[in-house]
Amino acid sequence: MPGGFVCSGRLKAKADDEVLHTVFRGHKPVRKLFTKQQRALFDTHSPRGVTLDDLEVLGPLNILKLKFDPKGYSRPLVAELWFYPNGSQILELSAKCLTQDTFTAAAETTAFLALLGVDLSAPQQTKTRNELDLLTSVGAAPS
Length: 143
Known about the structure:
The protein folds into 2 domains: 10-54, no CATH class; 58-143, no CATH class. Helices cover 30% and strands 15% of the residues. It contains 4 helices and 3 strands; from the N terminus they run H-H-E-E-E-H-H. A 3-stranded antiparallel β-sheet has the order 1-2-3. A hairpin with an 8-residue loop joins strand 1 (62-68) and strand 2 (77-83). It is globular and about 50 Å long.
């Protein structure tokens, strides 16, 4: 992002559709969505006194995701188009790299996007901040 970086990580696991639906309907606790390793990661890094079951389901959101290898750029890119309940959209373009390659990847990505004419000076925020703002303000949590 202009003016800074967003670094993220994930501990990904497959989720059973039926478990997802029962949790989203409020018939099972939120912690049932997470693996033992994910629960341990949450417990290690969450604020004291906050549990997975304190979390609320927001959404759902529709997302289109495309992974591609653009000509003239050395890294794979991921484009995600997020559709929000209020009709707004966010397009996120991301490049993944190793920690030690962060600044090189950022410089290469910025140069590549500038070469394509992408305006990097527009106001930007992380999609997580945008999602939380929109979903908590419109009451989009399922009933």
